[in-house]
Amino acid sequence: MSEWVGIGRRARRCYGFDEVALVPGRLTVNPTEVDTSWEIGGIKFSIPILASAMDGVVDVKFAIAMGKLGGIAVLNLEGVQTRYENPEEVLNKISTASPEEATQIIQHLYDEPIKEELIAKRIKEIKAAGVPAVVSSIPPKAIAYAKIAEEAGADIFVVQSTVTTVEHVSTEYKVMDLAKFCASTKMPVIVGNTVSYDATLELMDAGISGLLVGVGPGAACTSRGVLGIGMPQVTATVDCAAARDFHYKKTGKYIPIITDGGMNKGGEVCKAFAAGADATMIGSAFAKAEEAPGHGYHWGMATPHANLPRGTRIQVGTTGSLEQILYGPAGVDDGSQNLVGALQTSMGSLGANNVKEMQLVDIIIAPSIQTEGKVFQKAQRVGMGK
User: Fold this and answer.
1) Prediction pTM value
2) C-alpha distances in Å from residue 365, one per residue of 2, 20, 240
3) Domain contains 6
């Protein structure tokens, strides 16, 4: 559905998490008996949740903790973990900077060159703990870093940029051949980010193993304000899921999509799956964990950009352990803890036995869903009124 925005110009109406709701049907399921597992590249995980490749969220210790709890934490190969032998000192400088100084300090600290020996070292440290090592790089560095990562034993490689397409035009540098890269890399390759049906089909045809969906919804991301681009996550996920399903019918190969960003609470995670996601990638909720390296601060991957930062440092606080955030017991009332429990309970209430069935539940447009009957919560700034 589109509406006129001016003479000769129409725009499509799109929807975010706050504008929709999920409707229970005729069947309910015991939440403890639903199956939240998912699979990518032949690797099965018990929970469909990934921690974002952001320096305030994931370091080696966090990746190990997340892996032991059944999820995935993606380590940024172009962050402080691979620039500094002792990244803790750098992270302390970032977390103690004033709001006025934070971006400049981050830019300065990220001027330090990446050390390839640290890439291998960090991956081996994660693998030594007996959990999968999942790492991330931007496209220009992907070929070189994937080779190092593969030799070090990484299990999954993520190629990530603000907007990813198969066709990329540049006269300044050599453009990565995505199909060739996927074919030559033994690890499953996750690529992102995108929000459109056509781009999803082309990326899947190139041989990727997974796709990140979302442009600009992250809590620390400012791309939507700086660049004016993006699409609300419900519509973006629905569109990309439609492309995934068409690709599966055409080729017989199922490529999971991962809704990336915009989710801070359990309800938003549940809506992402209802829109068609196979998994979700979350940053700010995990930045609140006691194990997070940012000490209660969170910043976007594009914050260090020397000329045009598209992220900022935000204070999210430390609210509990990673286990609490994933599995509870929740010590807060706003839905930001026990994310897996929220997903299981939502699936049970909607009659979904597994993630595939969750993708088929009834979604309605409901702009009053966040405010209806919540006058006291809003007035007292508790629960959904925070």
Assistant:
1) 0.93
2) 15, 4, 19
3) no
